[in-house]
Amino acid sequence: MGIALLTGCDNGDEANGGAGMVGFIVKKATNKILVVAADPLRERHYDAVWVRRSDHEELLIGQKVEVFFKEDEIETSNPGQGTARRIRVLEAETSGSSRLKPEEAIRSALNRVAYWEIPVITKAEYISADHRWIVTMFDGTNAAEEVQIIVKE
């Protein structure tokens, strides 16, 4: 199993630097988004949380976000569930001469594996010589091997 239950998250006060988690939006549903941590707790173990928030319509699949949770609001199901106090979109750096933003390449790759329950993004890299992105990911609900999905511009 590749998903952890927020054991490593700090859902402390935002003013004191305590963010709940930083990760990618990998799915959207009514009034919630699934965020999977950008960095593993340990090899192939990533936090994943369905984040409840009524005004997340402006958020897009593929975006990297920082989620600040309401205190003591994390349910330890798998994936976890919590209510966001605030969600901040992190600006992605554009890669070289790419016409696509990293979040657009990730969104395109995620569309190809929409049937996965918990997609985990491990890397998104732009290869400028080939004008393509390589997005590396695996399905966190099983012991699946990583796959590389090519996204051409």
TrEMBL record:
Source domain of life is: Bacteria
Protein's recorded name: DUF3221 domain-containing protein
Q: Which InterPro entries match?
A: DUF3221
